[in-house]
Design goal:
Oligomer: single chain
Structural class: mainly alpha
Order of helices and strands: HHHH
Number of strands: 0
Radius of gyration: 13 Å
Strand content: under 5%
Distance between the termini: 37 Å
Number of helices: 4
Largest sheet: none
Shape: globular
Number of domains: 1
């Protein structure tokens, strides 16, 4: 399924509102990349409709990335 770029933009803006701009700025590039991919998968489950994604789904994806997949500091030793 091809998802329209406006839907990706809409869920990205909403994610910033849900988790806060200061939290997004504090994420590493690896965490941000994983979070964006997770949001893309959520959009696929919602047939590309960002409006049908709930704030709790967005928050859940952020928590999964930040607390379970790649916690802050867990990958710092891998960077040059």
């Amino acid at each position: 399924m091809q998802i329209d770029q406006t839907q990706y933009d809409a869920i990205s803006h909403r994610a910033v509102r849900v988790i806060g701009p200061e939290v997004v700025e504090a994420m590493s590039s690896a965490q941000l990349g994983l979070f964006n991919r997770a949001l893309g998968r959520v959009l696929l489950r919602h047939q590309g409709n960002a409006e049908s994604v709930t704030d709790l789904e967005i928050l859940g994806q952020w928590e999964q990335i930040m607390h379970h997949v790649l916690p802050t500091g867990s990958h710092e030793h891998l960077l040059p």
